[in-house]
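It would be a great kindness if you could assist me with a short task in structural biology. I am sending you one protein, given as its amino acid sequence and as whole-number tokens for its backbone shapes. I would ask you to consider whether the tokens describe a fold that such a sequence might reasonably adopt. The full record is reproduced below for your convenience.
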Amino acid sequence: MTIPFYCLLAGAILPYVWATTSTMIRKKEFGALDNNNPRVQAAKMAPGPGTRAYSAQMNAWEALALFTPAVVPAHLFDPGSTLAPILALAWLGCRVLHGVFYLADIATPRSAMFAMGMLSS
């Protein structure tokens, strides 16, 4: 497996990290999880870390929609590329920092990581 594919795998795990964080905060806020309507319950969360973690999760899923079709052709057509691993590692670093900045409520660096991650794709 190539570095871009490992980055893709790590990127696919990130939404679950943010979802777990959001779920823990949601459980603390409401006392119990509403497994019948988790999105409705998430929408009722007070503004703060829980909603930011939920937003980071949603954004992480969306970022995969652009990164995945960038990685697959790069691997198929030029698996020995020296640029693809650099861009993939940059994307992964940006995505991790994006989520961290989202949770920490640091908007400008978060937006910068989003933009740099998109450019890396």
